[in-house]
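Q: Could you fold this chain for me?
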Amino acid sequence: MKKITLALCATLASASVSADTILGFDATAGVWQPSYTGAVGVDDFNVDEFALAEDNVTFIQAALEHPIPVIPNILVAHSKVETNGAAMLTREVTFGDKTFNVGSDINADMNLTHTDATLYYEILDNWVNLDLGLTARMYSGEMSVTSDLQSEDIELTGVLPMVYGVARFDLPFTGWSIIAQGNGTSYNGDSHTDLTAKVRWDFVPALDFAIEAGYRAMTLDVKELDAFQSDLEIKGPYVGLSLHL
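A: Sure. Below is the predicted structure, expressed as structure tokens.
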């Protein structure tokens, strides 16, 4: 009877390891609280003059991994980035195709919501993990500027190809990990980076629940992506909850 029980336990353990090796799913949802610096518009209007609201940004990402070497793994991520502010112009400024005069009271609503589709490979997979791949970042946003006399809506609906990478260092027997994650691209004078540094704690290892906290910094220096023109830095702390199956 003991032999049968031991054999059954070994079989179940082997099946569990095999299932995790065959297919893995990891999802994270959280809140990012960024601040905004830099400039927008044809004349590089300083966004500090807008006093843009530092509202919470919600984000989610999910990754599906498998053991087939030639087929890349898949990661999908979405960040809803929205803010607004107001200013009185001390100089003439052009947003999109319209010029706003000195002394105008203007309101701005900025939407930089984006979705990432990433194909990547696991280069290392032990206590040191390294993933490399390519991302297509799809923007579905706009910037609306209004005054008493006129308004302008500037779309941001382009797709940016980006290089993707993640390095993760697991601290053995602690449940803690240190992670650096990033995307970046530069083309025809435009550049865009999105970098995150974080720590992760698997506080319920048996259920594969983890909490992570870190700092995310995004730069968007574009002149040719749709009609939107900016030299922005968006950065701040964030916290998230993760599940691994």
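A (continued): DSSP finds one helix and 18 strands in the chain.
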